[in-house]
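[retry 2/3] GntR family transcriptional regulator: previous attempt timed out, resubmitting with same input.
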Amino acid sequence: MPNYSRNNLTGQAYDIILKKIIDAEYEPGQKISEKKIEEDLQIGRTPVREALLQLRQEQLINVIPQSGTYIAKIDLKDVLDARFVRASVERRIMREAATLKLNEEQIAYLDRIIENEKRTRESDDFPAFLDSDDVFHEYFYKLTDHQRVWDWLKKINIQFNRFRFLRLKVQKLSWQGLIEEHIAIYKAIKTNDVNEADRLTANHMHRMLDEEESLIKSFPDYFDNID
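[retry 2/3] GntR family transcriptional regulator: success.
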């Protein structure tokens, strides 16, 4: 994912289009119009074209000759690979975090994250819920001085995040379960229970794909590599 400045129009176009892809506002397999995107974003032709080119290079957009430009479907193989990498890394991160003694400021910040997750669930704001979910996980990478690892994971987690968003959008009942798991992981880390933090994190990461089969049945046209 390119590291564009917020003042860079190409970067702004890229960020907005990418978020629309992850949030399924642009649905997998949907045909898109460069001109319509320019109008929606109120950004000029060149920045939008450059952003779409970057997204095409990242295999999030497909161009079919004599047909048009389409949002790429969610590649299930990429989702599974990303989950495997993240689960492996995150268990190490949480084990390391559980060896730390959290100070009052860190505890207060984590409490605020949990409260924000509860608020976004109550308001059915799933984009905000996913953002808050990311903030929770990212904070432990910061605490253990592994921010660059998180930044790297974000680059390979785009397909995984598309799956996560769709899952939460369809199956809202799982939101509360995710919050409860966050609270349990947080408690294990706060009490320096390394093994429990590891166990809970492993279960939490596997839960993210628990509804894989039912989600594919609900949206069979959204996925590639489902065999």
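[retry 2/3] GntR family transcriptional regulator: The chain is about 70% helix and 5% strand.
[retry 2/3] clearing retry counter.
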